[in-house]
């Protein structure tokens, strides 16, 4: 499996409201899972402020390193929505009013299509549109960049519209083994199991619950068969040191 | 106020569990608010995988651009906890077993201080410790970098231990005005109000609730008096175009 082409993506989250702590981002986790289903791995994320240079720098750094780059936030009708301008600047493209986007908004708003609303039809030159089934104002695709809304409900609608349209590889699958233990007690078993089974990554995630210490051990691989085999080995290894494993998540 | 020294910070969130969407980050928003109280502005965030180079590159890019750099994740006892090694490599420092950290762990674990647990006493050479009131294994300060846990409860305890110890400037205050309106209807009023009042930023955050459209307009400034003045102006501007403002958040 290791010779397979691996498809990667990055995300730029745009918005002072995230950096001030006012708004809890909900797009990262949703996008990560959606990408996983498409066989694409989210490899890095940046959160930047509503600032032309900050957005352009992040976009230019990440778009060349990954197959796909997503952005969320800053595509509404107000003065703080500068994502389109920043990405156009990053790509050295002009900003135009996209005729199809204008038609969608004209159809939706009728004679209420004000200048502010028309801002939502602006795209970098040469872009195509991503359908927004929820509130009409479209997302934008330009080169390998997907410009999405900040409001999670809208972004999720746009991702649904993209379902199955992006080329990906084998999805990364996961399987969880758990135990009521301090992770420091099982560190050697985890390390050895990962080392002896190339192609499987094992993450250890401790928790404290009802006064007890436990940990979930998440195995990741593109092979269901390998996941099953290594989960068995890990559970056997835990039992060898006197710890009762749980086959699943705690 | 504009001549005041502005203190900035960045955050590197380390962990495949965030990038896979398995775990929802909760440290960004908490740290952002905590920094705000200290008079420090969180300006950028990166999320990177459990990979030495990815961590080191992010740390080296951000530590020179900001007064403070925080990291969360990857400081436990297991094989996937490589933050200390990556940051030491980024700084060109050796990794040592910190004598004070070793003493804290020895006191806590007694004769159960295994090699795996001793991993949690490793720091870059020349570091100092950040108290962990919850689970003992300390956080680490080296140069302007603060190395914190990934588990939110532990990180919050470490931040409490740092309360009031970092030099900051005037805190950024905020005040919210809201209205049941589409933000596209008020875009001109928002833009004009921000343009006419330097020192105040206005963010517009739309929502849909119970079938109705509304938006919160968040004013940010270091001056309470200016916030009050501009909030009045914004509410007057909204009333001029026939929209009833709410003095507060919806």
From TrEMBL, chains A, B:
SMART domains: MoCF_biosynth
Pfam families with a match to the protein in the record: FLAD1_M, MoCF_biosynth
The MoaB/Mog domain, residue ranges: 10-169
Classification via Gene3D superfamilies: MoaB/Mog-like domain (3.40.980.10)
CDD domains: cinA (cd00885)
Signal peptide positions on this chain: none
PANTHER family the record matches: NICOTINAMIDE-NUCLEOTIDE AMIDOHYDROLASE PNCC, NMN AMIDOHYDROLASE-LIKE PROTEIN YFAY
Record-given protein name: Competence/damage-inducible protein A
Highest classification ranks of the organism: Bacteria, Pseudomonadati, Pseudomonadota, Alphaproteobacteria, Sphingomonadales
């Amino acid at each position: 499996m290791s010779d397979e082409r691996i498809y990667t993506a990055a995300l730029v989250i745009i918005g002072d409201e995230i950096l001030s702590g006012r708004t809890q981002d909900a797009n990262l986790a949703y996008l990560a899972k959606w990408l996983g289903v498409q066989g694409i791995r989210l490899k890095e994320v940046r959160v930047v402020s509503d600032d032309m240079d900050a957005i352009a720098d992040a976009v230019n750094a990440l778009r060349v390193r990954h197959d796909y780059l997503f952005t969320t936030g800053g595509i509404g009708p107000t003065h703080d929505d500068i994502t389109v301008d920043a990405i156009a600047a990053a790509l050295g493209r002009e900003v135009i009013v996209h005729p199809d986007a204008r038609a969608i908004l004209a159809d939706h708003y009728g004679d209420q299509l004000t200048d502010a609303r028309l801002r939502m039809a602006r795209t970098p030159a040469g872009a195509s549109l991503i359908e927004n089934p929820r509130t009409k104002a479209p997302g934008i695709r330009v080169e390998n960049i997907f410009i999405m809304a900040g409001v999670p409900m809208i972004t999720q609608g746009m991702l649904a519209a993209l379902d199955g349209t992006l080329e990906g590889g084998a999805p990364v699958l996961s399987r969880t083994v758990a135990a009521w233990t301090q992770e420091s007690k099982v560190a050697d078993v985890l390390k050895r199991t990962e080392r002896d089974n190339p192609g499987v990554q094992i993450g250890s995630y401790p928790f404290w619950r009802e006064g007890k210490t436990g940990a979930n051990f998440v195995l990741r691989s593109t092979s269901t068969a390998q996941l099953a085999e290594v989960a068995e080995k890990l559970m056997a290894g835990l039992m060898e040191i006197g710890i009762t494993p749980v086959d699943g998540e705690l």
